[in-house]
Write a structure and sequence with these properties.
The complex is a heterodimer of chains A (799) and B (170). Chain A has 799 residues and is an alpha+beta fold. Chain A has 18 helices and 31 strands. A 5-stranded mixed sheet of chain B has the order 4-3-7-5-6, sandwiched between helices. Chain B has a two-stranded antiparallel sheet with strand order 1-2. The chains are: A alpha+beta (799), B alpha+beta (170). Chains A and B meet through α1, α3 and α16 of A and β1, α2, α3, α4 and α5 of B.
Chain lengths: 799, 170
């Protein structure tokens, strides 16, 4: 395991005009956490126990919108075994959330969604805690429920937050009644461009909300020792969780330590600050450790991390030659009752709705709309699968209008290296066209498409997120290394790959290093497992620390071997003098020497990559995501089979290609792409939250909210275009979210070939597919389920 | 005496469970599921709870070699039967071939579904020592994984099968 990360398999072509996708041969990837995970000895948050530990349960609103007339916890408090009951009056009066501070830990005057927490109970058993919750009495005065984003912004609509004008907001957030955040991006004169266009096409697409659904439900255990608080939490973002605890409980950061045991997946669902402060406050009131473990139903109802529903209206003007003349769009994004981290969603969604295309004139407006639904928040590539599904379905409609093959339309209009993007950002080397070529050649290279099968493709794009991050590396007296990092492993292998980065820099083996991670008490800051940023930013920190440590080793070796430090070569765990036949000295021996003197210890952080400039664009409500650092591009293509009797769609095989810059760990990268594709298939076909008329979820369980299974899994082939210019280590960009962008759109386009028009509501359930096929409108799917593409169905085996 | 979820008292009884070749005396009320007793009374936390509703497979264990969702199986009913959990299949010093194959193929990411997945794969290979790709997919379809897209898990099980790695349940 000493082959360098830079010696990748596959040919790297430096000439961007001839960029080519390659199939990467995975190198062995020994996960440091692997043995723990396959033997069951690894501890997750729900496995943690402490002496005297009590069990927590929450009292939820169970109603979407109401004024609290009376909240009485006295009966609960008097029950046997109950050690604490707390409500809003027991915690500091703090309104929080990044972007728009609209949230409190516990409901005060009103509840605004069914999962809002009124009170928390701790008792000596889980059953007693539940019995106490059931004994809490609440009297409500019901308020009108806001459940539809279109109606929510109509004049005279009931307000979810009557006090919205008094909320503290970030300077860039533009608020309106029932609109938490508004953003527009504009470039050129869209109105004039549309007027000059030869053809104008308008589409409307509606996406239902969905869920991150990690297999591990969240769990939290909090313990106070004097003034010091330790919280074991299933969070993707321990430093963010710490910030939330400190803000809401009014504590300094050095009194709060967040430790994440192994994390059982997140996909954004465990980003942000959730329930750590509730449990910490409960533990303080109880005078003993308190543990919370969510049921699957709670995992669906309570977190502020639902994938947002969306209404997308797009109009594109085309020139006679098929080039895009202008695009306008309006997006309504269902924020739910509170804003969580979603304030930047409008700008992000607007960018995604513009798409990775050459568009001379553009205007897209997007609003994050309050409703009485569960709050939305960053779930893997927030806003992207839905917005991409809409714009890429629209793109196939555009191609049909001008009589072009969808793949040729994308080749003509898709961004190329050196192009200026839709908001005036000039791109360097980008691999979009090579991604299209790679997928198209693999999909059309297949033969034997059956009558009920079709292929389709879609392109996607997604930013990388530069940010601060730190790490230490030390080598102790026996030559054993430790990487002490603030980074969080949520399963992707990003933290696991750090060992290889350090080892390659130091001429050592990955197995020479153990990881100390996901503990805010011992490691420097990192943003967490969010925004595909772990390897992108923490990799930079680890490389810098390793480089500093290499200098220390070279200095020691230079003294030992009587040579200049610059002549010392580190390889195979030894230091030697370049070109000298003299024996090398082992790093372990040098580490033993250092242990009695200055120690082998180094740190790294480094300046985060800069965000590029946009030129000639105007953005209202700028949230910093109109220009994309290290932009990633992708193309996904699928072959689907339709059962025309039932509307059931099956994805048979998938071809993907990604430009995420340098691929540091091919096996891990393939795992990200394949997992993203399956999540995309779920979003396309089965995963959608259904609401009743009061805004309560009708399917908060894995039987009714159906994830893809191993029996559904298609064959997936993947290639990468390793462009230059990524700001991450060795030219890497982010990766984990990008594979969750284009799959649903590709399925939509393949399906449309079979049934003659696009299904305009996501997920494209059998009922909606069938309704589109027959142009019927069953009562349960009548909302926006009208196909409007009347072009002739194409044969299914062409792109 | 303990108090059940309805707030009424119920009697604990004592019985033995045979887990991974060892006998454990247990004292628990009759309503306790096998998952909870394994995790909290016996202290084997490798078996995970993902849904408490037979939907995710994270709690899969073998009962006399047959895979069951331990969340929906009463602990007291497992008396007199051989229970195998993930802890019974291998350890870090001597991984079971299925465990080795899963790691080598990149079939492990967050790891939360992994114990249940391995148990199901083990049961599948005992029934069918050379399954097709589709048969593996169907055999594992009761175990949800959100990370991997299943491809690498299926690759690992096929690889393990081709090496004849199925060993009798302890």
């Amino acid at each position: 395991m000493t082959s360098g990360l830079t010696s990748r398999n596959g040919v790297r072509n430096e000439n961007y005009l001839n960029l080519k996708a390659v199939t990467l041969e995975p190198r062995p990837f020994p996960r440091a956490d692997g043995p723990d995970k396959v033997t069951g000895t690894g501890r997750y948050a729900a496995d943690m126990v402490l002496p005297g530990m009590a069990f927590a349960r929450f009292k939820y609103a169970e109603i979407s919108h109401a004024r609290i007339v009376r909240l009485d916890t006295s009966k609960a408090e008097s029950l046997p075994g109950v050690v604490a009951v707390i409500t809003a009056t027991d915690v500091p009066d703090v309104r929080y959330s990044p972007g728009v501070a609209d949230r409190t830990l516990f409901a005060t005057d009103a509840v605004r969604f069914e999962g809002e927490i009124l009170a928390a109970v701790a008792a000596t058993t889980e059953a007693l805690a539940q019995a106490a919750v059931d004994a809490i009495e609440v009297e409500y005065e019901q308020l009108p429920t806001v459940t539809d984003v279109v109606q929510a912004i109509a004049p005279g609509a009931p307000l979810v937050h009557p006090d919205w004008q008094n909320y503290e907001v970030s300077a860039e957030t533009e608020q309106r009644p029932n609109v938490a955040s508004f953003s527009s991006i504009a470039h050129g004169d869209a109105e004039a461009g549309m007027a000059r266009a030869a053809t104008v096409v308008t589409s409307r697409y509606v996406a239902d909300a969905s869920h991150a659904s990690p297999i591990e439900p969240r769990a939290i255990l909090a313990q106070w020792e004097g003034r010091k608080l330790t919280v074991w939490s299933a969070t993707q973002v321990p430093f963010d969780a710490r910030a939330g605890v400190c803000e809401t409980l009014d504590l300094p950061t050095n009194q709060v330590r967040i430790i994440v045991p192994h994390l059982g997946g997140g996909f954004g669902g465990k980003c942000g600050f959730h329930f750590e402060a509730h449990i910490a406050a409960l533990a303080r009131a109880a005078g003993r450790p308190v543990k919370l473990v969510f049921s699957r139903k709670e995992e669906f109802l309570a977190p502020d991390r639902r994938r947002e529903g969306m209404v997308v209206e797009l109009t594109t003007g085309l020139n006679a030659d098929g080039t895009i003349a202008a695009r306008t769009g309006t997006l309504l994004i269902d924020n739910g009752a509170y804003t969580a981290d979603a304030a930047f969603f409008p700008q992000l969604a607007a960018m995604l709705a513009a798409g990775p295309y050459r568009i001379p004139a553009l205007k897209i407006e997007a609003s994050l709309v309050y409703t009485n639904h569960q709050p939305s928040g960053s779930v893997r590539a927030p806003t992207a699968p839905q917005a991409c599904w809409a714009i890429e379905s629209h793109t196939d409609e555009l191609a049909a209008t001008v009589g072009m093959a969808p793949v040729e339309f994308r080749r003509l209009n898709g961004l190329r290296s050196g192009d200026v993007g839709p908001v005036g950002q000039t791109y360097g080397e980008i691999g979009l066209q090579a991604c299209i070529d790679s997928v198209a050649s693999r999909l059309t290279g297949e033969t034997g498409t059956e009558a009920d099968e079709a292929i389709g493709l879609a392109v996607g794009w997604w930013p990388s997120f530069p940010g601060p991050s730190g790490a230490y590396i030390k080598i102790d007296s026996d030559g054993a290394g430790q990487i002490i990092t603030g980074a969080q492993e949520c399963g992707t292998g990003a933290v696991m790959t750090l060992r290889q980065l350090a080892a390659d820099e130091l001429g050592m083996a990955a197995e020479d290093f153990e990881l100390v991670y996901q503990d805010t008490g011992v490691a420097p800051y990192d943003t967490g497992a969010t925004g595909s940023q772990t390897l992108f930013n923490n990799g930079r920190a680890v490389l810098l620390a390793a480089s500093e440590l290499a200098d220390q080793i070279r200095q020691l070796a230079a003294d030992h071997l009587e040579a200049a430090p610059s002549d010392i070569v580190l390889s195979d765990g030894h230091a030697s003098v370049a070109g000298s036949p003299n024996p090398a000295v082992s790093v372990a021996e040098l580490a033993a020497t250092a242990a009695g003197a200055e120690l082998l210890i180094a740190h790294g952080s480094g300046k985060p990559g800069e965000y590029p400039e946009t030129v000639g664009a105007s953005c209202v409500g700028d949230q910093g995501v109109a220009a994309w650092a290290s932009p990633q591009f992708s193309c996904h293509g699928v072959r689907v089979r339709l059962d025309s009797e039932t509307g059931v769609v099956r994805v048979l095989n998938v071809a993907t290609c990604h430009d995420s810059g340098t691929i540091l760990n091919p096996l891990g990268a393939l795992g990200q792409v394949e997992g993203g594709v399956l999540m995309g298939i779920g979003q396309a076909l089965t995963e959608g939250t259904q609401y009743d008329e009061d805004g309560c979820q009708r399917n908060p369980g894995l039987l009714e909210y159906k994830l893809q299974t191993a029996a559904d899994a298609p064959t997936i082939t993947t290639q990468f275009v390793e462009t230059t210019g990524g700001q991450g280590p060795h030219g890497a960009k982010g990766l984990a979210e990008a594979p969750n962008v284009a799959t649903a759109a590709a399925i939509s386009n393949a399906l449309a070939k079979l049934i003659g028009s696009h299904v305009t509501q996501l997920p494209m359930t059998p009922e909606r597919v069938w309704a589109t096929m027959t142009d019927a409108t069953p009562s349960d799917a009548d909302r926006d389920a009208t196909g409007h593409d009347t072009s002739e169905p194409k044969s299914g085996d062409e792109l | 005496m303990t108090i059940d979820e309805q707030g009424s008292e119920s009697e604990s009884i004592g019985y033995d469970l045979h887990v991974n070749g060892q006998t454990y005396p247990v004292e628990a009320t009759l309503d306790r599921n096998l998952l909870g007793v394994l995790r909290t009374e016996i202290g084997l936390t490798g078996t995970k709870e993902g849904c408490d509703d037979c939907e995710c497979g994270a709690c899969m264990v073998l009962l006399d070699g047959q895979p069951v969702n331990s969340c929906s199986y009463l602990a007291a009913q497992a008396q007199g039967r051989q229970i195998t959990t993930i802890e019974g299949l291998g350890n870090a010093d001597q991984l079971h071939p299925l465990q080795e194959c899963l790691l080598a193929h990149g079939g492990v990411q967050c790891g939360f579904c992994t114990p249940g997945m391995i148990i199901s794969a083990h049961a599948l290979l005992e029934r069918n020592s050379s399954p097709s790709r589709d048969e593996v997919g169907i055999g594992l379809s009761g175990n949800l994984c959100r990370c991997t897209g299943y491809a690498k898990i299926i690759d690992a099980v096929l690889d393990s099968a081709s090496n004849g790695s199925v060993e009798p349940t302890p």
